[in-house]
Design brief:
The protein has 13 helices and 8 strands. The chain is α+β, with helices and mostly antiparallel strands and 455 residues long. Among the domains are: 84-158 and 313-423, MetI-like (MetI-like fold, Orthogonal Bundle); 187-304, no CATH class.
Amino acid sequence: MTEKSGGPLVPPEGGTSSPRADTPRKLRRLGPSPAVAIVFLLPAAVLLGIWVVYPIIYSIIRSLFDAGGSGFVGLGNYLTIFTDSNTLTTIRNNLIWVIAAPILVTTLGLIFAVLTERIKWSTAFKLIVFMPMAVSLMAAGVIFRLVYDQDPGKGMANAVLTTVHDTFSSSQGYPDARPREGDTSPIAAKDGGVATKQPAQAGQPVLIPLVGIKPATMPANAATAVAKPEPGGVGGVVWFDFTPGGGGTSGAVDPEERGLPGLTVEAVSNGQVAASTTTAADGSFRFDGLAAGAYEVRLPQSNFQAPFAGLSWLGPTLITPAIIGAFVWVWAGFAMVLIAAGLAAIPRDALEAARIDGASEWQVFRRITIPLLSPVLLVVFVTMIINTLKVFDLVFIIAPASVQSQSNVIALEMWRVSFGGGNNQGLGSALAIFLLILVLPFMIMNVRRFRREER
């Protein structure tokens, strides 16, 4: 037996030594050897080199040559980026994208994530908001190309705007209406509108015949024109002086001719508007409370302006904000899901303690929720910056060819000068490297943050 004492254990005489005594001082390696790891990583490393490393190196070399690839130009292509007006426009547009789009996406994602915690049907709401992520950017571009169509009958955006506008404005525009040519017409064009040639007489109807009105412009509620005499007052009728099928008398109200409703009619005395009224469905009008005197009756210029048909979303002014709106529609659900996951990880004790101490919901949100969510918000914000710098599909699909130069971005310009007709792959390669340089800092920032969180 081995005696136990203050000294080390001594094996019995003739016995074998313990396994620990035979263990080498150098620790044994756990798991497979590095050679096995290299064998498994080698295929991925080869593919990464073919698809990522080689194109980057080749693009750097190619950017130092001219369009044909035979003449060495050094940094000439990079100088062109900052001197050419088209490329400067793309840089300006990318700056707008980087400032506006990530802020909008992150803000909307935060609002949606916070609000969905307080509603019972939060799952359905999150599903609806996240659904655009299942649509490719090309399909989203086709959708919003239709949404932004100028015709309110096709484009949803202008259909909504015109509906709201027409709800609060009952004016009916007749942009093609005009007086009939000839000296026999009782009216004439004046100051962009139409006015009577002779002063109005009390008790006699004022006749204002118009022609040139297209069938699509004629309101559905237009009734048969009626010339009503107004005893002791001034009134008359504005109508479409055209009889379907021909016939009728010029300047006279015929049985099949229709009035023009919704027109503004003014009674003018000494250059001042004394009274104003609107034509009824049959085109008739009457001035109530008009003092005695001679009045010129006129239709102001506002009657002959085209009715409100929405905004030119695909025009040079609004094209970039319109495309950013489509981008926000696609990515707001992604931001909402990430931020909602961060909200779920916030300790509820901190929120409840603040409420018990008397903090309002706004104070809890601003001083507790936002600081605790700042890592998630930063990840979402940086991710959106990377996505905006690489945006291509939405701009290419939504922007018409006539305004694509005003909405151009670096990724699209890179494709245009290389393969879209420019045939200058030297400049295209320089734009690709320039875009890589812009994206690289944000990618490094994300990687470092992920490593810090893992530690």
